[in-house]
Design a protein that fits this description.
- The chain is an alpha+beta fold.
- 15% of the residues lie in helices and 31% in strands.
- The chain contains two helices and eleven strands, in the order ββββββββββααβ.
- The protein has helices at residues 129-142, 148-157, and strands at residues 28-29, 35-40, 50-56, 66-67, 72-79, 82-85, 90-93, 98-101, 108-110, 117-124, 161-162.
- The longest helix has 14 residues, at 129-142.
- The chain is globular.
Length: 163
């Protein structure tokens, strides 16, 4: 494997890092009691990746088994116990555990522990996942119900294919 094509052509480096304090308020609070921190979005990384801190409350939450056609997804457990599905089996992910899912890989995650848990979620390349997260939070907050066809359309718009 070789390095990717050069993306920076300046003679000298730039002072362009972006710091985000751990104390910053979440960017999104959804109806399931999950706080989402947009650490680095596809928009801020030039499409390279999206990185999110996912802080789940004690109530059961998480998506059903699904896959993506355009991006990989990785999970790194920071605290608590998060059930991770690799397409074959469910495992109890604990701090330091990691799951990588390539494009097309079936996966899911859930907090079923009854305790808070947190993880990092990384998407490559950096798809606009914020719109998806925000749309789901809005549906939950307003109590709106969707037909199965509307759910399918929403998922497809955001490269999410339920299995």
């Amino acid at each position: 494997m070789s390095y990717p094509p050069q993306r920076y052509f300046g003679e000298h480096g730039e002072h362009s890092g972006v710091y985000r304090s751990a104390a910053q308020e979440p960017d999104l609070v959804n109806g399931s009691g999950t706080d989402v921190h947009y650490l680095a979005t596809g928009g801020t990384t030039g499409g390279a990746y999206g990185l999110y801190r996912w802080e789940m409350g004690p109530n059961p939450s998480g998506p059903g088994a699904h896959f993506h056609r355009t991006m990989t997804e990785s999970f790194y457990v920071l605290s608590g116990t998060i059930r991770l599905y690799d397409g074959v089996r469910w495992v109890d992910g604990r701090p330091g555990d990691f799951l990588f899912v390539p494009e097309g890989g079936v996966h899911a995650f859930r907090n079923e522990s009854g305790e808070p848990a947190s993880m990092l979620i990384l998407f490559t390349p950096g798809a606009p996942r914020e719109a998806y997260f925000e749309e789901l939070a809005d549906i939950a907050a307003t109590g709106r119900t969707l037909t199965p066809e509307e759910w399918t359309e929403l998922y497809r718009r955001h490269d999410q294919y339920m299995v």
